[in-house]
Amino acid sequence: MKYNIDVIIKLSCLYLFVGLLSSCGDSSSDSDTPPPAPTITISTPLVSEITASSAVVEATVSTSSEVQAKGICYSKSADPQIKDNSVPASTNRMAVTLNNLEAATTYHVRAYVQSSSEVKYSSDVTFTTLEADKPSAEIEDDLANGASLLKRVSVHDPSVVYDHTSQRYYIFGSHRANAWTSNMIGWQTVTIPWATANSTNAANNVAFTTPQVTKVKKGGKDVDFVFDAQAWAKRGNSAYNIDGNLWAPDVIYNKSMNKWCMYMSVNGDYWYSSIVLLTADKITGPYRYQAPVVISGFHTGTSFKDTDLEIVIGTQTSLPSRYAVGNKWGERYPNCIDPCVFYDEQGKLWMSYGSWSGGIYMLELDENTGLRDYDVEYPLTGSGNGITVDPYFGKKIAGGYYASGEASYIEYIGGYYYLFVTNGGLAAGGVSSDYNNGGYQMRVFRSQNPDGPYVDSQNQTALYPRYLLNFGPNENDGNRGVNIFGAYSNWGNLLTGGTNETSGERSQGHNSVIAAPDGRTYLVYHTRFQNWGEGHQVRVHQLFQNEDGWLVAAPFEYTGEGIKSIDIASKQQIANTDIPGKYKLLVHNYKLNHLTKAYSKPVEVTLNADGTISGAQSGTWTAKAGTCYININIGADYKGVMIRQTLEPKNEKAPCFTALDSKTGVTIWGYKYAE
Fold this sequence. Notes:
With 675 residues, this protein is mainly beta.
């Protein structure tokens, strides 16, 4: 390439002249005055996905200008610094994985931001890695004497969540009943206070009148909105008392807000209900009312003007006709109670909600506020009582036409989103003149998408095409939803048919589920009993996936069994030679007559060494070598798992199986017993 030397010389002179000019002028140049130090805020780190050798740490930083570095530092000593061990992050919403950690070791972590003038750290958070995995042929030992650690609590509608800071599981229930445990066996009650602008221990009748959030975002603009949740609920009954109407809270840690978020129903008569958001810095509160998420009951007049309906669908001169249904509201639209809030696998925040009435609905939430995302639109789909997508209430995922069904709970497990819905009446039953008194029973559906479509093992949709009776002896919905289990007694060492909690479980439901950090999946529910009036307690069972990916519940309570979810497909806990013997077999049928407090009772069968089954039922059994999978064929093909469990309340071990017939949705349980 040729160069023009004359041009180069002229350009060089020009650059020199410009440089001289730029060095002259105002004496107060940037070089004389140092730039102001950036303003830096750092959230408290959140630790999750803890294993024996790794953990994920998340934190959020906010800075007024560019910084040199940011990330997570960690060590075995308090207040770790960058010089100890650190993992850099590239974004302000940091999520880093700490690898090569030592098993069963406590670590301290802090988030850091390094500017030109300082290194700023977050508060110190500790976590403990799990014990090292044993060889693949082994399964973790059961907790010694786990059954003796059982401690009961009464929490109606228990919603479970894990707090990584305290390493405790908490359950939040209706009427401010709450409890915690560190092992999912022994529970202790705890009081969770409310906060207001003037109190950290506010009474119910003042805690839900004045929201802290008075503006919401729509189209990037702030919109004024103030909602008195208590006053709204009172519209249905002038003698309304909020004390008995705070129902079914669900608590989740919001990673963007760095807050514990409680979603709770403020229930009112005639569908004048709302689901509200409360937040706290600690899982134990105090929780302060922020704003409503969704509101129901604007079925007449101009009451909609006191809700956020117009923020969602635009200004209205009168109530749109599709909502002006008066006391027919429940045939078309939801009652805004029973929230379940969860992150999907892509980090999007969702809320399912509803009870009986128009069905179970789903809304997308704003991850940054915890409230509904006002910029997500739901185009009206369907008409009349057949609406499946409503511009205000969102997408219907289950139920409808006033069929029973409440307490939706969604958890992602092994490739599917599982939807639990409880059908029937929550009472113990036994009132022949009141069909809705009793029959409470959990049903299960699944989907590959968080917002459905949800189907059961028979490929029946969770959505109803018309009113169908879906519980009790007169059920006519095709036995929709997997019957994971129902009322039963005379089972193991505890349910002997005696009094109170020994009399047998019935009306189990309003459950929650957690795929826990310890590698197990737990089903948490409340149950009434065969002979204890309306007394109720919390129970916890492990859940497993069978070979078809459907969930089956362990036949007995969790008392520290070593088996984990990951073990089922790769390890065999009960050797083939230990399977043959006499078993108690329990079939969980649909259509139990709750009017007479009917329940399932076990029969005796023998699993013979030649793979046959004899006794009260005849058939065959096969176990899949190297796994916990077992098939039981007794006129129907039940696919499940064979594990070892403790026959509580004694520390007595026995081989047990739990299995599902996918063609009917019926489940069976069994345990081996000595004559």
